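Below sits our specimen:

——
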Amino acid sequence: MRPVVWWLALSGLLFCRAVLGAPESTLRMVYFDDFAPYSWRDDQGKMRGIMVDVMDRAADELGIRVTHQGYPWQRAQKLVRFAQADGFVSVTTRERRQFTRVVEEPVTTTVLTLFTGAAHPDLAQLQQARTLAEFKRFVILDYIGNGWGKVHLQGFKVHLTKNVDNVFQMLAAGRGDLMITDPLVAWFKLKQLGLDDRIVELPLRLDVTTFHLCIGDHSRFKNRAEDFERVLHQLRERGELTRIEAQYR
């Protein structure tokens, strides 16, 4: 074999071995940075929460390195849409399925209820409501990027603001009538804001919602969706996901 040909063949072999032997790239996860206790940035700038802990645990089971970054929710979704991050955890919508591969086994599950001001003049009427349609005449406060609200609150009077803190502060000040969210999110946030004595939860349960790992169509990790499906199922069966969630209650 000629020296040049031999060298090219050897170089190609070494390159293939390097590629095949190289560690898998890091899974770059992004989250809503103001959705405690599911995902939020702490005082040191580190992402914390149920979603972060579950993804850490799942990635560890699969031997995958993972990083966690938080952003305003709209921006986080755009980072995945435009190939600047690998995935997020969220409610699935038709729009999100257009640019991600959804892992159908949930990361976590949430119940949606309604909250209003403790001094609301129509509190008795609000507490007696049995369907979402009964709130048509009231102003519902919501944050920008909430997929559930975008789908289910069409035709309602909705005032959007940039984050969950603003929603609760406006609700406590009487600048809106209702907010729809998970009680775990609500009471965690209200205690932080010192507003837990000014807001009440209504008895109506609107929905049980699941949050799923959504991996961008551009990401190499979309081919690991079945692996994540299997591992999340195993973690749920072993009770590990329940134990993670219990730490935040």
